[in-house]
Design brief:
The protein is of the alpha+beta class. It has helices spanning about 25-35, 40-50, 75-100, 105-125; strands at about 1-10, 15-20, 55-60, 65-70.
């Protein structure tokens, strides 16, 4: 499994992006999910969903001000980017909610752009 960490706002929120994983990585993925407060049942269901192509999942924990994003293998590079963008919207929503900002305002738009920019800068082209 490949992981990339994105710092938002100098430590105000962290994002752990996990992708390019295989079934042997499920134990590590499980551990991340559980550390974010997911129950055993929800973690099992998440792993089932993530075993399919073109899927993703985000879990956020307000207590530790972090989100973990999981991106499955995809059928194309454009599908990978679409899934990343979708999941980053969930991350942005959690951050905006936590800090009490308006979701349709400029801070949310800048945040979404920042998150996508950081993914592009940190990983370049995804593995598939």
């Amino acid at each position: 499994m490949t992981t990339t960490y994105i710092d938002v706002g100098g430590g105000k929120w962290g994002v752990l992006l996990c992708y390019d994983y295989y079934s042997v990585d499920y134990k590590d993925m499980w551990a991340v999910m559980r550390s974010f407060g997911m129950s055993d049942k929800k973690s099992e269901k998440a792993l089932e969903v993530l075993s399919h192509l073109n899927s993703g999942m985000t879990v956020s924990n307000y207590d530790i001000r972090m989100s973990a994003v999981f991106i499955s293998d995809t059928t194309s590079e454009s599908e990978w980017w679409s899934t990343v963008n979708h999941e980053l919207l969930h991350v942005g929503s959690a951050i905006i909610d936590y800090y009490g900002e308006e979701f349709d305002g400029e801070p949310a738009a800048y945040l979404q752009g920042y998150l996508m920019k950081m993914v592009v800068e940190k990983i370049g082209t995804p593995c598939n």
